[in-house]
Recover the amino acids of this structure.
């Protein structure tokens, strides 16, 4: 890439084309990275949850965040905060695994707060109470300065 020009996608929007690692960190051009999640995919809620769980279990919460973001942008308005909260928790886990403990804890708690209004309804089979408890508990551990292993700390999204 020409260092004075920004990467662009096919529509001409600025889009970084550098490869990324499993935690979404940019790598030098030409370095092998993990395959990026395609953007703008409309999935059913169950497809979203299964794909996000697969990525979380693989230690790739940054990529799971992108799956949740697609659901957040394409889903019904009534579920917007649910998907946004799940995306925030995935990014919180990403930051915690990268060593950004303050940002990780903050995003984990923000995500837990965003999904809490859905408690008791079990939307799409998501165990809201357990997931919010996981995020708050992990945030407390992360605040002690401990970097976490994203795959080992992956939450269970469904029952």
């Amino acid at each position: 890439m020409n260092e004075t020009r920004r990467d662009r996608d096919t529509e001409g929007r600025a889009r970084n084309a550098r490869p990324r690692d499993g935690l979404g960190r940019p790598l030098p051009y030409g370095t092998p990275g993990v395959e990026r999640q395609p953007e703008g995919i409309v999935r059913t809620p169950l497809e979203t949850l299964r794909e996000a769980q697969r990525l979380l279990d693989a230690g790739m919460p940054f990529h799971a965040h992108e799956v949740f973001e697609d659901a957040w942008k394409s889903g019904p308005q009534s579920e917007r905060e649910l998907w946004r909260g799940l995306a925030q928790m995935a990014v919180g886990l990403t930051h915690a695994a990268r060593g950004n403990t303050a940002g990780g804890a903050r995003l984990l708690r923000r995500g837990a707060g965003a999904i809490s209004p859905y408690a008791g309804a079990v939307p799409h089979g998501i165990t809201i109470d357990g997931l919010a408890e996981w995020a708050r508990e992990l945030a407390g551990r992360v605040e002690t300065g401990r970097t976490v292993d994203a795959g080992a700390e992956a939450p269970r999204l469904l029952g």
About this structure: Helices lie at 45-57, 61-74, 80-98, 101-115, 128-142.
